[in-house]
Design brief:
binds 3-isopropylmalic acid, binds manganese (II) ion, alpha/beta, Isopropylmalate Dehydrogenase, 367 residues
Length: 367
């Protein structure tokens, strides 16, 4: 009898449900080929949950996610919910899932598909293959924040008026555990790791750097470098293929992984894994958003969601062969010229297709 794996599926908003539909076809096919059966439970989060229950994330949804082997998420958010109370925004669902499930390690591989090199705005892009390791449950995303009115007056006479603040804080434990993930990952790749921080300005960054340098001494086989985030954003463009693992805080990781998405051609191709303590369910999702402007048009690129299924099979369920088969099939669809709009550049060898056509090609190439 086939193994059964239990997956909480959160299609979300905008293009989320469309790409999820395609991703589930691929999951199902992988199950048939590799001898497992995926039991999926569909859950609401984000805008869809606001519409149904008045809140972006219910306790029941979190509990159901905790009781599953993994969570597969599409995307959340959209202009429809732009004016809701900020504490009820759809994005709060993501943050709530990350903290509720303890998903402190966000792995965002940014690997170039050779045939998409020309779609990159960057010239020297060959062999770019970066793994971003982003801390995901700390830092400014989860620090103290608030607003108050101030009577103070600026030196030029302008009144302060309302003051808003967000704070960044990191503990040694939080830093050490994410750095450990990054060093381990580098050990299994090209043994190079870059810490990105702003240690010339931020106290938190200086703590990151001290611990990083200590751990670097414990890992003599791994080449280490430290870059300030502003400098790194330039280096990523001038020498993207020099990087192997980049480890950084929640906010810097958010920004730089989008930049890497552009460098490698399209965020429509990039999956992610968010992992917590061993034995607890991880969450797998594309790094792109809900793209409400193209929702319902069939134009969405399902590759990032499909590659997220591959990451899920590998990290949550140890089905490495199935994961590799999916990754190979996506690469084959690209090399055979299948292109959704975001990766189409009008070359003769390319054929423009919709979400379900590229998925059919991927299913076919799974053999
Ligand atoms: C991401 C997204 C989220 C983040 C938003 C939607 C809260 O941009 O996953 O990168 O900032 O982490
Ligand atoms: Mn982001």
């Amino acid at each position: 009898m086939a193994d059964r794996i239990k997956i909480a599926v959160i299609p979300g908003d905008g293009i989320g449900p469309e790409i999820m539909e395609q991703a589930l076809l691929v999951l199902n096919e992988a199950g048939l080929k590799f001898g497992f059966e995926a039991e999926t439970e569909m859950l609401l989060a984000g805008g869809a949950s606001i519409d149904a229950y008045g809140v972006p994330l219910t306790d029941e949804t979190i509990e159901k996610c905790k009781a599953s082997g993994a969570v597969l998420l599409g995307a959340v958010g959209g202009p429809k919910w732009d004016n809701v109370d900020p504490s009820l925004r759809p994005e709060k669902a993501l943050l709530g899932l990350r903290s509720g499930l303890g998903l402190y390690a966000n792995l965002r591989p940014a690997k170039l598909f050779d045939e998409l090199a020309h779609a990159s705005p960057v010239k020297d892009i060959n062999d770019t293959d970066i793994l971003f390791v982003r801390e995901l449950t700390g830092g400014i995303y989860f620090g103290k924040s608030g607003e108050y009115m101030s009577e103070d007056i600026l030196a030029d006479g302008t009144p302060y008026g309302k003051v808003a603040f967000d704070t960044e804080s990191y503990s040694e434990g939080e830093i050490r555990r994410i750095l450990k993930i990054a060093f381990d990952a580098a050990g299994g790749r090209h043994r190079k790791i870059t810490l990105v921080d702003k240690a010339n300005v931020l106290t938190t960054s200086r703590l990151w750097r001290r611990i990083f340098l200590e751990m670097a001494e414990e890992h003599p086989a791994i080449e280490t470098e430290c870059l300030y985030v502003d400098n790194c954003s330039m280096q990523l463009i001038s020498r993207p293929s020099d990087f192997d693992v980049i480890v950084t805080s929640n906010m810097f990781g958010d920004i730089l992984s989008d930049e890497a998405g552009m460098i490698t051609g399209s965020v429509g191709m990039l999956p992610s894994a968010s992992l917590g303590a061993p034995g607890t369910p991880g969450m797998f999702e594309p790094i792109h958003g809900s793209a409400p402007d193209i929702a319902g048009t069939g134009k969405a690129n399902p590759c990032a969601a499909i590659l997220s299924v591959a990451m899920m099979l590998r990290y949550a369920f140890n089905y490495n062969d199935a994961a590799c088969a999916i990754e190979r099939a996506v690469a084959k669809a690209i090399s055979e010229g299948y292109r959704t709009c975001d990766i189409y550049s009008g070359r003769p060898e390319e054929k423009i297709v919709n979400s379900s056509e590229i998925t059919l090609a991927i299913l076919k190439f799974m053999g």
